[in-house]
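Lab meeting notes turned into a lecture example. A postdoc, R.K., suggested we walk through two folding results consecutively so the class can see how the record format repeats. The first protein's sequence and structure tokens come next.
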Amino acid sequence: MSRLFGSVRSRATLGATLVVAVALVAAGIAVVLSLRSNLTAEAGTEAERSARAVASELAARTAYDRLSGLDGDDGPVQIVDGDGRLVAATEDLQRISGTATAEVRPRPDPVGREDEDSEDADDADRSDGSDDADRGDGTGDSAEESESGKAGGSGGSGESLAPGEIARETTFRNGSATIDGDAEDYRFAAVEVRTPDRGRLTVHAGAPLAAEHSAVDTALTAMLIGLPLLLGVVAGVTWGVTGRALRPVEGIRREMAAITASEDLARRVPEPGTHDEIARLARTTNATLAALETSVERQRRFVADASHELRSPIASLRTQLEVAAAHPELLDLDGAVEDTVRLQHLAADLLLLARMDAGGRPAGSRVDLAALAREEAAGRPGVTVDAEPAEVTGSRGQLGRLLANLLDNARRHARERVTVTVRREGTWAVLGVADDGDGVAEADRERIFERFVRLDAARSRDDGGAGLGLAIARDVAVRHGGTLMAGAAPAGGALFELRVPLAAEA
């Protein structure tokens, strides 16, 4: 399992599928809730319409047995008086819940109730026919207020209704009912009406919720069937798309594995023709391989050149020792000492280059290039110094070695004079070493800084070195954040110019 989900492809597929699943479930829940709410509202509107139709008939003094809404075609209907007593209900109603009462059979009026209602109706008629008399003694208003208070105190809506008026407020509840053996869920609407002859009544009418249940069930079924199928499609598409997108990465991985196994740094990974991150990765990988190949080739060439340079003084020294062993009178002691010194210098140069190649950073001490120039020029014939103070940060030993190598190189090629200058240019310290020799051809001004490179005029090992002095000088300059360039001196010879950042002011 861990291996299966250890790939980018599988994790991307799983993540995309989970995100889509969460989004679809949330959207499905929202759709189902919205659908249920809308259908329930429609059922409530239908129930309210039926309740108000019955209430209108009651307001028109229609008898209970003549009400059109009690036939059961439009749903269950209950009519409850102000005392909560069922006075009329739908025919064949067997069970009901969700209304003011669970009774399904109307109860007869108590003794004297019908007479009381009749007297109230007559009083209302007389009140309507003799307004002036009622205004005179106030009995009409008292009777109306008494009936209104009685109706309002029975737990109704609390609205003050005139005879024949239907309340504006409608209350809704969910419930169920059984009519002639058919049980269904209903949305009930309750509407109050004040009748002229029967006081305050409440009409409960229900509209079936079968359409709402059916639609919700259909939506849930569609979701349960469609969601896995859609997730399967999403997973398949994501798997294919990520596989296609990561195919170049797999090609890069295989090629890198082949390069590692064969140790052939000349090979390169395939670069896709796109302009995306994978193409940039391939180009960066090839650039890294090219730099690594150059570095390895440089190390191989360095080792080969070092072996060649070491072989000559060692062979010469061995020959002299063998001759001395056989013929002591023929021993060239000066030559043996010279070869030993040359061998010592070459070993020191190789060791310094190895340390710098290993990435050793120079020390962070402050060095005055003017003082260093005067110190290195002391005792060297024909060398003059023109320097102003310029402090830099770095290794005094490495900077001294750089200046000594430049002075040795200039002395080998100068006719009479070598000039050392130090000046400040902005944030840079500039050190120049110029000679009055033949100079360096423009085509060779970069090549002379390569390791073990000696120009034709300086190929004699007796006059020149091993070709490491200028290479060491440039490496020291680069590691101090500066540059070392070769050019033409004003006197016609060679000019080597070092630029390094000035030390920060304390």
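The second example is placed directly after the first for contrast:
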Amino acid sequence: MTVNGFLFNLATVFEDFVTVALRDALASHCVMQATHHLDERDAVRVVPDLVQYAADGTPLAVADAKYKAERPEGFPDADLYQMLAYCTALNLQEGHLVYAKGTAPHGSHRVKHAGIDIHQHALDLDQAPSALLADVHVIAERLTPDRLTPRRRPAGPARARP
């Protein structure tokens, strides 16, 4: 018996969808998988899923997508440490983690002695594509509330690029 089919890594599909949808929702100057370094000797590489830059190259916002299940007490702590490293390397006061569905649409942690806020967003994947893209636009607005004006939300059903 012969069976044909496709095998997809859903973590990669989700991460690609979120980063492309965020990039499209934001005004400009977004780079996916931008390489930066945590240390001054450039020995420790960090590669966030999405970094938004000002026209002069200054990082404005950072986001990382995670296709993980939420634990009863919250999302994995390791993700918070990873985002803290991104914010430190990019000299940003906040970072954004985007998960596939959770118990709350948004949570936030302020890091002691660092003045860094790490936001955790949850996308409900069990909804129409237009509603999902509208939720991504809400997250995009949170990435740059006082810095830049995100593009308008789609008026009707829209197709996302994976």
